[in-house]
């Protein structure tokens, strides 16, 4: 797969989404989001992932507007939180997010977690927003296969993206296969395992390729067909995370990383994150 930092995948509705983005979870201190986003855009990133619950949508919007990069070049994702699920509440919550971001049309809107029993209602609201042109693509986050199957019952639109915890200790192969079969782009949050990169295989491959363990993992993501959004506020680390397009992992080394899977989550299990 010959890619550059500006390369995109084509979603099931024809929208182009960058393979690499910047996550801004927990980036709430004054000025941090702007510095991180400006550093990412300067490094060539063109995708920013936020959410209502991150409490930084306004900062993200301001950073994008002040970056000097055309809005048309930047792919912006935000998400609807659990307490905002349901048809009317989701529409109201989206309007609040849209105003905070203040960047025009949102590129991708996600249901943050499946929650309890309202995600089908929420999806109807998403379909309305999509059909009316307020968002360019709609998708979900933290959905397992059974959630996706339930969502498909009576819905008009297949999710463009499913953003889930995915990394070498949680490779999500069943979910990835289902997503590919149904035209859903898998996207990895927490791709760097919240810093738990001390796996001997990753260290061995880092030495072999002259890259960091983080770069090995992020390259594994994109070669697996998974969009990835590592989070950092350090400009040098942001640039390093973006420098994954000048090498390729061999099939043998991809298999070694696949073999690290332990179905281990650092985040919550979607089946237990119910409220």
Automatic annotation (TrEMBL):
The active site is at residue 54. Substrate binds at residue 112. One of its GO terms (molecular function) is oxidoreductase activity, acting on the CH-OH group of donors, NAD or NADP as acceptor. The record marks 79 as: Lowers pKa of active site Tyr. InterPro entries: AKR (IPR020471), Aldo/ket_reductase_CS (IPR018170), NAD(P)_OxRdtase_dom_sf (IPR036812), NADP_OxRdtase_dom (IPR023210). Signal peptide: none annotated. Residues 20-261 form the NADP-dependent oxidoreductase domain. Keywords: NADP, Oxidoreductase. Belongs to the aldo/keto reductase family. This is Aldo/keto reductase.
């Amino acid at each position: 797969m010959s890619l550059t930092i500006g390369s995109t995948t084509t979603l099931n509705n024809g929208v182009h989404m960058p393979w690499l983005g910047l996550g801004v979870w927990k980036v709430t201190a004054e000025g941090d989001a702007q510095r991180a986003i400006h550093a990412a855009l300067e490094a060539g990133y063109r995708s920013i992932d936020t959410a209502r619950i991150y409490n930084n949508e306004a900062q993200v919007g301001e950073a994008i507007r002040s970056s000097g990069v055309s809005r048309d070049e930047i792919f912006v994702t935000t998400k609807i939180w659990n307490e905002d699920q349901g048809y009317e509440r989701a529409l109201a919550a989206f309007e609040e997010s849209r105003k905070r971001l203040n960047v025009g049309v949102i590129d991708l809107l996600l249901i943050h977690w499946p929650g309890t029993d309202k995600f089908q209602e929420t999806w109807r609201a998403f379909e309305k927003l999509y059909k009316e042109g307020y968002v360019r693509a709609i998708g979900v986050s933290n959905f397992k296969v059974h959630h996706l199957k339930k969502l498909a019952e009576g819905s008009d639109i297949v999710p463009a993206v499913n953003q889930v915890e995915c990394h070498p200790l949680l490779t999500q192969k069943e979910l990835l296969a289902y997503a590919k079969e149904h035209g859903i782009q898998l996207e990895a949050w927490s791709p760097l395992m919240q810093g738990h990169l001390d796996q001997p295989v990753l260290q061995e491959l880092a030495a072999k390729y002259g890259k960091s363990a983080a770069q090995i993992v992020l390259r594994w993501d994109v070669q697996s067909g998974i969009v990835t959004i590592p989070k950092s506020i350090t400009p040098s680390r942001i640039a390093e995370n973006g420098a994954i397009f000048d090498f390729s992992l061999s099939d043998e080394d991809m298999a070694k990383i696949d073999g690290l899977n332990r179905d281990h989550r650092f985040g919550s299990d979607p089946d237990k994150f119910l409220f």
